[in-house]
Structures are given as C-alpha cells and as structure tokens.
C-alpha cells in the first residue's frame, strides 16, 4: 500500500507541474480545437504537432532566418527609396518628352 501512495504522490506532483507550466491548458485547447474542427484532418497527430509547434520555442536557425529577412526588407526599402530619389534627380537633367517633340 505504501508503494501505491508513493506512486500516486509522484503522479500528483507531475500533474501539478504540468498544470503550473501551462501544458495541460495548452493540450486542452488544442484538443478542443481538434474536436470542434468541422472536417477532421486525416492525421490527428499532424494537427496536434502543427498547433503545438506554433507555441513552442523556435529553432535558432529559424530565428536567424527571420532576422536576416527583416534586414533584407530594410535594405530593400532603402534601395527603393534611393531608386526614387535617383529617378527624380535624373528627371531634372533629361529633357521632358514634350520638349523633345517640339524640336
């Protein structure tokens, strides 16, 4: 009987740990989402992986790629702005189309 209580105590501690860390709540939410899904997916496991994967810490490589993407977007914006300015500057030195036709 003492062995049963020790095992039961460990299970209870583990359950409290899962509850405190938010695991039980997250699993409940994902399972409810699966239950409420009008068209059940072919793979319930893939559904769970997909929905739980969004809440887990990301792979460091993915984070690096996101940072690189953000940098590239900034460089792209700067290049577009520079292009606009250079086109405007160039337009000052080129004769207008109307003036070309008048000659």
Automatic annotation (TrEMBL):
It is found in: Nucleus. Residues 62-89 form a coiled coil. The keyword Nucleus applies. GO terms for cellular component: nucleus. Signal peptide: none annotated. Keywords: Coiled coil, Nucleus. InterPro entries: AMY1 (IPR026060). It comes from Sciurus vulgaris (Eurasian red squirrel). This is c-Myc-binding protein. Belongs to the AMY1 family. GO terms for molecular function: transcription coactivator activity. It comes from the Eukaryota.
